[in-house]
TrEMBL record:
Residue span(s) of domain Glycosyltransferase 2-like: 280-436
One Pfam family in the UniProt entry: Methyltransf_23
Cited InterPro entries: Glyco_trans_2-like, Glycosyltransferase_2, Nucleotide-diphossugar_trans, SAM-dependent_MTases_sf
SUPFAM superfamilies per the UniProt record, alphabetical: Nucleotide-diphospho-sugar transferases, S-adenosyl-L-methionine-dependent methyltransferases
Coiled-coil annotated spans: none
Classification via CDD domains: AdoMet_MTases (cd02440), DPM_DPG-synthase_like (cd04179)
Organism in which the protein naturally occurs: Sorangium cellulosum (strain So ce56)
Superkingdom classification of source: Bacteria
Segments for region (Disordered): 1-28
Record-given protein name: Enzyme with glycosyltransferase and SAM-binding domains
Length: 508
């Protein structure tokens, strides 16, 4: 955890010497020398967890991080061995297993053949004699394309460097130089550790070491209670996170090797070519005249696909027709708009499929593209396929719409470094593990901005391919003014996400 700088002497489950047990809780006046002075959620780690289906929290402590991820809808299993933490973690998580994470047989016995979307290692590996072996031990329990998030303290943080300049490298009861840390990491060596385990590193985030450098003074000023969660529940702490922490993040991002307290690394099991369970999705709203024929075209292009319709129809039989033709229909009535409907579509598909391809129900996007798009992800390893309509102006698109779309694409390139020509395409494909890696907020319009930029800026491979754009069947539901406003809002809100230049964005 971000506050698990105070992880005390622990049993073998966190790599410490056999038989060691957490010390008894000290009185408040003994704060300066005791363990577990502060327990808090690892903010950077939780922020990048996304919306996984299943999570294994390795060395879960009292379950703060796992509980935060659980609130996204995930089922969270913890592994812990410290007796004092097991009961509290059991109350916070769905399940807690008592197992020694440094033992192959103990892990196999605890987990069997179970696999998870996400493995969390929140300030655990530095307490083990062989962090690489611990990391590799759990990878057989990771789903295909599954993600791993590792948080490690930064031994190159500026207070440690200043101490070395003064000739000091003194172990402490907590912090980066915690006296139970067996291994120390810089940003570069932390990344090397993950890569040596055979994982693909996608992004590296950080928790800052600015205000935290004065932690001791702050805690003495506030007074340290018996409960290590006291600080995190205090008003000053909440005010710090609301008002100061965002500014700290901006500053620390400029020089994370120096200004980070912890490096939080997001990695994944590298994708391999394979046939994937496919969902083809559509947003439908009073599409009676086209939905039957559209489902027929999808069946021709992808006979094995599940067809999913998120339907907001209020005036015709669109949902009945779709269901009668074998589609899975989720109703969103009264209509809440494009963003919430798309959010429901994406996460519903990601809950039970490996691959989502969505398109509009009005024949503007040819379903015959589906096999080509599918091959790009299944065989060529793309994570997202963006089907671009606007490399040149299609005859079916009015000139004002074309100009607006190209202007939005130009702004995206200038602001984010992503060389797209179409940020609002209504036909895309997503590896579902990528959808689950983010917590997309569908409120408002223009959600395709986020669902394109977030993966493109966070290390995923995005392929853009040109497609035809045909005459619409039926009437447009596009809200032009709201869409324009929300496009600008989302372009601005995406600025802090990931890295500016999308070096894995490929135009074909």
């Amino acid at each position: 955890m971000e506050g698990r700088e105070d992880r005390g002497p622990r049993p073998l489950g966190n790599g410490d010497a056999p038989g060691r047990r957490s010390p008894p809780r000290a009185a408040p006046e003994a704060f300066a020398g005791r363990k577990y002075a502060v327990e808090e959620v690892n903010r950077a780690l939780v922020a990048v967890a996304g919306r996984p289906r299943t999570v294994l929290d390795v060395g879960c402590g009292i379950g703060l991080n796992g509980a935060a991820v659980k609130r996204t809808g995930a089922r969270v299993t913890g592994i812990e061995i410290a007796p004092g933490s097991l009961a509290r973690a059991g109350a916070a998580l769905d399940e807690v297993l008592a197992a020694d994470i440094t033992s192959d047989s103990a892990v196999r016995e605890a987990l069997g053949d179970r696999r998870f979307d996400l493995l969390l290692f929140a300030d655990v590996l530095e307490h083990t004699a062989d962090p690489l072996a611990v990391l590799r031990r759990f990878l057989p329990h990771l789903e295909e394309d599954g993600h791993v998030i590792v948080s490690l303290p930064n031994v190159a943080a500026w207070p440690v460097r200043l101490g070395l300049l003064a000739g000091r490298f003194d172990y402490e009861p907590s912090g980066i130089l915690d006296d139970t840390h067996l291994r120390f990491f810089t940003r570069a060596s932390a990344v090397r550790l993950i890569e040596r385990a055979g994982l693909e590193v996608l992004r590296v985030e950080q928790n800052p070491m600015l205000v935290r450098a004065a932690k001791g003074l702050i805690l003495r000023g506030l007074g340290a209670g018996d409960d290590p969660g006291d600080l995190a529940s205090s008003l000053p702490y909440k005010a710090y996170h609301a008002l100061v922490r965002p500014l700290e993040d901006v500053v620390a991002d400029r020089a994370p090797g120096l200004l980070a307290f912890q490096h939080v690394i997001v990695a994944r099991k590298p994708p391999r070519p394979r046939r994937m369970r496919l969902t083809v999705g559509m947003l439908t709203m009073d599409e009676e005249e086209s939905v039957g024929a559209m489902i027929g075209e999808i069946r021709k292009a992808a006979p094995d696909a599940e067809i999913l319709c998120v339907d907001s129809s209020t005036r015709d039989r669109t949902p009945e027709i779709a269901a009668g033709l074998g589609a899975r229909v989720l109703r969103q009535v009264p209509p809440r708009g494009h963003g919430p409907a798309m959010e429901l579509l994406m996460y519903s598909a990601a809950a039970r499929s490996d691959l989502l391809i969505y398109l509009d129900c009005d024949f503007t996007y040819p379903a015959e593209n589906i096999p080509v798009i599918r091959r790009l992800i299944e065989e060529e390893g793309a994570d997202v396929v963006n089907c671009a309509r606007t490399r040149t102006r299609p005859a079916a698109m009015p000139v004002p719409n074309y100009i607006a779309n190209r202007a939005f694409a130009a702004m995206t390139h200038a602001m984010h470094g992503i060389p797209t020509s179409d940020v609002h395409s209504g036909m895309r494909a997503y590896r579902c593990s990528v959808i689950r890696a983010f917590d997309f907020d569908g409120e408002g319009d223009a959600l395709p901005i986020d669902t394109l930029l977030f993966p493109a800026k966070c290390g995923y491979r995005v392929v853009e391919m040109p497609i035809e754009y045909n005459e619409r069947v039926g009437t447009s539901k596009l809200r032009k003014l709201a869409g324009t406003v929300w496009t600008m809002i989302r372009l601005l809100r995406a600025l802090p996400v990931g890295a500016r230049l999308g070096d894995r964005y490929e135009r074909r």
